[in-house]
Amino acid sequence: MASTGLISSTDFTGIVAFISGILSFFSPCILPLVPSYLIFISGITYDDYKKLQSMKYRKIVLIHSLAFIVGFSFVFIALGVSSSALGKLLSNYQVYVMRIGGFVLIILGLYYLDVVKIPFLNREKVFHLQEKPVGLFGSFVIGVTFSLGWTPCVGPALSSILIIASTTENIWEGIYLLSLYSLGLAIPFLISALLFDQLFGLLKKYSSIVKYSMKILGVLFIVIGVLFFSSYWSLVVGKIGQLLTF
């Protein structure tokens, strides 16, 4: 029996946000550093993990990873609320917001494809913590500092989702989009925590994936940017919804 429901623009942008979060994880300045982050937030070394009590250490790494994820998700979702609130404030100028946002998305997409250079995005902006604050709260704090840094990798993708959030109709849509972006970034991080004892081997074997993640993001944001700028976004999403309706 055919379904009468269509995929809405919110559903579609939610998928984009989720995929963007996953691809952000596989960026050149996040993926190679995941083992270092896991060691830093948990206090567990690779040698410790290889010992007989690996199940005990697996639990420690996983719990601290969850606190770390809550930290960066908190900041990302707060930014989503702010972006949606600004978009709502400028709702009378929605056409211009879409066009400006589309132009910025195209530029960020070209940046990911190495077609244009944006010097300030190439500067590493990260709060270096010499010592980790104590306990799970310390892992939460590190998650917060992570979300405020690593501009070359997280910044453009996050900015792109925030631009999309600024065109939404209400604040809840902004929360929805940034929650999905955070989820996309969180899932591979949790998988890495669970596979910590195999992580170095997997990174060595599949490190070439970072070459393609940024290219995929670049193409994705250029396409969305063109649709935003040309005001064809709603029309294209509606057509896709019709094609996917059963």
Could you walk me through the main structural features you see in this protein, from its secondary elements to its overall organization?
The chain has 246 residues and is mainly α. The chain has one domain. The protein has eleven helices and no strands. Helix 1 runs parallel beside helix 8 (171-194). The protein is elongated and about 60 Å long. The protein starts with 8 loop residues before the first helix and ends with a helix. Residues 1-5 have low confidence and may be disordered.
Break the fold down into its secondary structure elements and pairings.
Blueprint: H1 9-25, H2 34-42, H3 46-49, H4 54-89, H5 94-112, H6 135-147, H7 154-165, H8 171-194, H9 199-206, H10 210-230, H11 233-243
Short description:
The chain is an all-alpha fold and 246 residues long. It has helices spanning 9-25, 34-42, 46-49, 54-89, 94-112, 135-147, 154-165, 171-194, 199-206, 210-230, 233-243.
Low-confidence stretches: 1-5
**Portion of residues in helices?**
over 70%
- What coarse outline follows from CA principal-axis ratios? elongated
Q: What is the residue-averaged pLDDT?
A: 79
Please report the number of helical segments. 11
**Secondary-structure element series:** HHHHHHHHHHH
Strand content: under 5%
Largest sheet: none
Please indicate the count of domains: 1
